Automatic annotation (TrEMBL):
<dbReference type="GO" id="GO:0008234">
    <property type="term" value="F:cysteine-type peptidase activity"/>
</dbReference>
<dbReference type="InterPro" id="IPR041382">
    <property type="entry name" value="SH3_16"/>
</dbReference>
<feature type="domain" description="NlpC/P60">
    <location>
        <begin position="117"/>
        <end position="247"/>
    </location>
</feature>
<dbReference type="Pfam" id="PF18348">
    <property type="entry name" value="SH3_16"/>
</dbReference>
<dbReference type="InterPro" id="IPR038765">
    <property type="entry name" value="Papain-like_cys_pep_sf"/>
</dbReference>
<comment type="similarity">
    <text>Belongs to the peptidase C40 family.</text>
</comment>
<dbReference type="InterPro" id="IPR051202">
    <property type="entry name" value="Peptidase_C40"/>
</dbReference>
<dbReference type="Pfam" id="PF00877">
    <property type="entry name" value="NLPC_P60"/>
</dbReference>
<protein>
    <submittedName>
        <fullName>NlpC/P60 family protein</fullName>
    </submittedName>
</protein>
<keyword id="KW-0378">Hydrolase</keyword>
<dbReference type="InterPro" id="IPR000064">
    <property type="entry name" value="NLP_P60_dom"/>
</dbReference>
<keyword id="KW-0788">Thiol protease</keyword>
<feature type="domain" description="SH3b">
    <location>
        <begin position="1"/>
        <end position="55"/>
    </location>
</feature>
<dbReference type="InterPro" id="IPR003646">
    <property type="entry name" value="SH3-like_bac-type"/>
</dbReference>
<keyword id="KW-0645">Protease</keyword>
<dbReference type="GO" id="GO:0006508">
    <property type="term" value="P:proteolysis"/>
</dbReference>
Amino acid sequence: MPVRKEPSDKSELITELLFGECYTILNQEGNWFLVQNAADGYEGWIDFKQHFPVSEAYFSEWQVQQHPRTLNLVDFIYNNQNRIPLLLGSTLPFFVGNSVRLGEEEYSFAGQVSDLNIAPEAHFLQNIARLFLKAPYVWGGRTVFGLDCSGFVQQVYSLCHYQLPRDAWQQAAHGQEVHFASQTKPGDLAFFDNAEGRIVHVGLMLDGNQIIHAHGEVRIDTLDHQGIFNADRKRYTHQLRIIKRIFPNL
């Protein structure tokens, strides 16, 4: 579901809501709701026609539980009346057996799901990140069909059941600092700033000082103490600001 900066279809996309996520309505203007994503606190406007209300009891229960995520690029939930498409990283509310509860309705799901009981491992995190390779860059996007740099990183970590904020500068406040590019481990996050010193980009480290990030598309480049070197363009494209380790034991 597109979430826009202003209450208009012409307004820029600032983020997206994926299936299974909850939000609260903060305000209404005409046919638009100002909403706040319950997972990351991000705010923006949605079209009232895409609003799906749930009870306060459902929302309260949803907030205190962890819910697995879909691992297939595209899949479906279904019941006798409906079939709903899901994208990689969608939340499966109250998933038990093969049952998903959406409001008062029950749906079946037979695809792959993330395991809430397994601690994240480096190879799993890298494999999840590579599922997004070649996904096009879309400002405000959070899906394999289009996403931005921080949306990509947020989705990868969500699939490891760690909730990062939405924007790169917010994500940079998480984790422990890694002082040298040569000391990075797979899963570390590298942040990059612009000429004014604002953090404007983020990528996820892989083995061998490689970094996977959304820049034109989700791609793999090389990182050193200076920044990201793009071999295709034969130049540095991003200036390194700081590296953070989210999972110390990864």
